[in-house]
Amino acid sequence: MSFASDRDGPADALVLFGMTGDLAHKKIFPALYGMAQRGALHTPVVGVASSRLTKSQLRSRIRKSIKEAGKPEDPTAMRTLFDRVSYVSGDYNDPDVFSRLKQALGKAHRPVHYLAIPPALFATVITGLAAAGLASGGRVILEKPFGRDLASAHHLNRIACSVFPEEAIYRIDHFLGKEAIMNILYFRFANAFLEPIWNRNYVDSVQITLSESFGVESRGAFYESAGCLRDVIQNHLFQVVGLLAMEPPAYRAYEAVQTEKTKVFRAMRQLEAEDLVRGQYKGYRKEAHVNPRSDVETYCALRLFIDSWRWEGVPWFLRSGKFMAANAAEVLVQLKPPPQKLFEDSAPADSRPNYIRLRLSPRAEVALAARVKRPGKQYIGDQRELLLLNEAADADSPYERLLGDALAGDRSLFASQAAVEAAWSVLDKVLADHHKAISYAKGSWGPEQADALLDRHGPWHNPCCDGGADAG
Length: 472
Known about the structure:
With 472 residues, the chain is an alpha/beta fold. It has helices at residues 22-37, 55-68, 75-84, 95-105, 122-131, 150-161, 179-189, 220-225, 227-245, 254-267, 398-408, 417-432, 451-454, and strands spanning 13-17, 45-49, 85-89, 111-115, 139-143, 169-172, 203-211, 276-281, 299-305, 315-321, 328-335, 355-361, 364-373, 381-391, 438-440. The longest helix has 19 residues, at 227-245. It starts with 12 loop residues before the first strand and ends in an 18-residue tail after the last helix. The model is unreliable at 1-5 and 466-472 (pLDDT under 50).
């Protein structure tokens, strides 16, 4: 199969499959509206879905989406978005849908096809695009999760690569578009002082927490098919580990960064059942579209090792969950205590040694914790945080940033297939071989059994309790 050489360069259309779906309503329309406000939405947007909608009904849905996202009313931006959007309805199995889509695209020859649909429909849509001649010169955006395990990730990739070349496949994970995630890469490699201590000689352990204070809400059916391990750990948190653990890339470009991240995933030791604690919040089985006997995890904590020169022997502790005590995402890089206890209080039992704290949400923070002496003759001190960075929430939403990049042909914030498959390899065994989910109370930090994973490296760092301005 030959691929068009004019694929490079800015796209001239965006095709949104699943236009009437939850993802489009909550994330994509607000992102397009934000682009329109900035004067950055230049391409037509053609939506495709099975629902029959009049132009008035479609515009009403878009307006409702913008309002529910909390966006201020901007008549000019709204008019721009309305002028750009058109709609094609029909069944994805019907070739006529793709014929009408081709007609709606007109002279566009570099479209971006966003598959904001269940992965089970990817093959149908991709083959339909190919049959209609709509793939040549185009790109495709695949929404995570990229498969359910290693085998399905292979299968999904074969389908995509049968029609699109690898460089035209954009695997979107909105977490990678967050300003705080991008700052990890910058903070690590723009500062010379980190490199001497960023290794097994000085780092005792690393903790990463992504906690959500709400439940599955209307996504019960999706969560029954995925669970926390697939939905959050395999993609979001593994991507954070990759950025924290990777070696310096030779240059700042997609290939170089992805190569180093993939090396991290390939160096991860395959997880065993004893490395994992699964939890399920009380009341989950009563959620809509959830099996009343479900064992799906809404919480997951794990202990991970990276068998590389830099990180040999350093444990990485990851956890995420629904209905937890706070809405936050935070990294704690725990440093080892001084080799000699010169001062009596230099390593108190009730306090952590020095650490570096990276808060990813709800606001971006970078902090360094160090001990300083109290005034007076005695050599007694306290640990205080030096706040290096404290930023408000993103000006641009992650989807706004990633959509703009996909339209521009910039793959730097998208996942590679090699990294996806390497990450699945780490989890492949425990996806099937694991202990039962443990019930935990809403508003807690998950099952107490997760504490045992940390052993001497504990306790867990709870973002709302022992971080930020209250750190002592």
